[in-house]
Amino acid sequence: MHYDPIKELLGRLFNRHPLLRKLFYILLNILLLRSWHVRKTLRRISSSLPSSASVLDAGMGFGQYSWWMASVFTKWNITAADIKSEQVADCNAFFTAAGLKERVQALEADLVTWSPPGNYDLVLCVDVMEHIEEDCTVFASFFKSMNINGKLVISTPSDMGGSDVHSDDDQSFIGEHVRDGYGKEEITDKLMEAGFNSVSVSYTYGMPGSIAWRLSMKYPVMLLSASKLFFIVLPFYYLVVMPFVVLLNFADLNITHSRGTGLLVVAEKNR
Questions:
Q1: CA-to-CA separations, 13 to 129, 198, 261, in angstroms, rounded
Q2: Residue 165 burial class via C-beta count within 10 angstroms: exposed 0-12, middle 13-18, buried 19 and up
Q3: In this structure, what are the phi and psi dihedrals at residue 80, rounded to the nearest 5 degrees?
Q4: At a CB cut-off of 8 Å and minimum separation 6, what does 270 contact?
Q5: Residue 176 gets which letter from DSSP?
Q6: Are 101 and 134 in contact (CB under 8 A)?
Q7: Tens digits of per-residue pLDDT, 184-204?
Q8: Degrees (nearest 5) of the Cα angle 185, 270, 36?
Q9: pLDDT at residue 13, rounded to an integer
Q10: End-to-end CA distance of the chain, in Å?
Q11: Is 56 buried (19+), middle (13-18) or exposed (0-12) by CB count in 10 A?
Q12: pLDDT at 116
């Protein structure tokens, strides 16, 4: 299933006014479990970063993480990079309208070929590496672009059912993925080879998170792919499932998982 057309349709719908875009960001933060884990991790490591940290949001997508970081960490300076020119234009227009253009700038870049010009204290990469074949090249680029004691935070599917692939016969739920997911050892080894000397990897999307993902993302996307008429009933659907999704996401966030369909990675550059 190709997920990008649905994302682009939602983006156009909520891009009509800055308040609608903020509402869209808030909904994403509630519905997307990865956002819960990423935001918790950013809050945890923020004390180890400079107060005016230089940040790269690598593969910003809709820009919701750049907006959240700029809103919560009001001295951070954020570069938001994405390969899609329309996303860059939309985000820059929103950042300007939201009064954030002095601290947040979006630019068009292919992470495989782009050499980041800045020295970053934090690189955030959410739901990006599963789309990039040349992952080792990108990891090496991240390392080169970072200051000593800089942090890299990655959220990506795992090889334990990430992309909804549970056997050799399954196909990825999202057709744009070039890999179904990483193993803990695989992504650790690749990051160490890139130069990172401290890598911590934990599972996300355990049992409660997997159920929440189906309710909040998989089933709605499947229905929207079948017919855009589902947009009419989508608000009523979410009114029903939202309380369950929030409870399941909260449970997933506060449980240590022995396995899960997602990975949360924190790597450090200490040399």
A1: 27, 41, 30
A2: buried
A3: -110, 115
A4: 148, 149, 197, 198
A5: T
A6: no
A7: 999 999 999 999 999 999 999
A8: 60
A9: 67
A10: 42
A11: buried
A12: 85
* Fold entry, domain 4-162+171-269: Rossmann fold (3.40.50)
pLDDT value at residue 167: 45
Q: How far is CA 40 from the centre of its chain?
A: 13
Helix/strand/coil percentages in the chain, nearest 5: 50, 20, 30
Classified as helix, coil or strand, 262 is strand
Residues 101, 113: Cα–Cα separation, whole Å:
26
Low-confidence ranges of the chain (pLDDT < 50): 1-3, 165-167, 169-173
75-123 residue pLDDT tens: 999 999 999 998 999 999 999 999 999 999 999 999 999 988 879 999 9
Per-residue tokens: 171: 């196909």
SS3 185: helix
Buried b (16+ CB within 10 A) or exposed e, 217-240: beebbebbeeeeeeeeeeeeebee
Which whole-number Å values give the CA distances from 220 to 3, 226, 229, in the listed order? 11, 10, 12
Q: Is residue 128 packed enough to be buried (19+ CB in 10 Å), middle (13-18) or exposed (0-12)?
A: buried
Q: What three-state secondary structure class fits 54?
A: strand
Residues 70, 76: Cα–Cα separation, whole Å: 6
pLDDT score at 5: 53
The Cβ of residue 143 has, within 10 Å, a number of other Cβ atoms equal to 18
Tokens 């939201």 correspond to: 98
For residue 102, the Cα-to-chain-centroid distance in whole angstroms is 23
How far is 13 from 245, CA to CA, in rounded Å?
Answer: 23
Specify the pairing of strand 146-157 against strand 262-269. antiparallel
